[in-house]
Amino acid sequence: TGVPAAIEWEGVRFSALDRCVLSHLGTYAIALGEGCRDNRIAECELYDLGAGGLKIGMKAIASDSLIGTSDNLVINNHIHDGGRIFHSAIGIWVAQSPRNQFIHNHIHDFYYSGFSIGWTWGYGPADAAGNIVEMNHVHHIGVMSDGDGPILSDLGGIYTLGNHQGSMIRNNVFHDISARVYGGWGIYMDEGSTGMLIENNVVYRTIHGGFHQHYGRENIVRNNIFAFGKEQQIQRTRAESHTSFAFENNIVLWNEGKLFQGNLRDGDALFDRNIYWPLKGEFTADSMTFGQWQRRGNDQHSQIADPLFVNPQSDDFRLRDDSPA
Q1: Whole-prediction pTM value?
Q2: Cis peptide before 150, with omega less than 30 degrees from 0?
Q3: Which tens digit of pLDDT belongs to each residue from 139-156?
């Protein structure tokens, strides 16, 4: 994250960078630094990058709202083939910066995360609330389209940290995500991720699962499709006394690995109205059968049923008219 950018703005407001191509760079392409607000990055192509595509915000919370970085729009950009020199660079990195919108961007072929939003580990002061991530296509993260990699661990199609009250991750597609040892997740909510809505996403072919919350508070995960995780599908690492998340109205389809990983017997996570379909084997949750899982108060209105996708093996996750979903 310390690598500079080819184009760096500070104190820039109500400005636009439209239909530009930035390529063959040794650094990040664009950085919106201190005091950048109400700007637009649109219809640009950023590729063949030594580091990542776009950085927004500073690591420290602004001491004055006048120098905060916020309310920027990043729309219809193609960001790909990055991390060539600095492998841990990110497609779009957002630090202490709220109320930005990331809409309809295509991000692929990075050795590390596609998005990374937030820069507070745990429940301390944070300033990344109200960010909107929607209608993006993020794929071949950790592993390249040509099969190169993975070389890094602990990454995701999208990675979050800290308090995100009012932030939304919705209507995105994340797929083909891998990691060398651990952490090749689709949607990865790391330390203290709080107050987020994750809905209507399609996540598939991830080596370590479609969704992972390390620890956090009061997140909603609903109406998503999680398919074909290799080692597991859903993970929560730390149980806490508050509600970690509500997992509702999701479809989970898998043919190998576990359904759940981590501690789901303790703490408070809510599961209901989901459809689970193991193409091989049976439903087990931490060695519990579906009946035993339900007797603990989980998934009272859920089903183990074929969701009747049109052709999931060919990435067609449309539902047939007679789908139980």
Answers
A1: 0.97
A2: yes
A3: 999 999 999 999 999 999
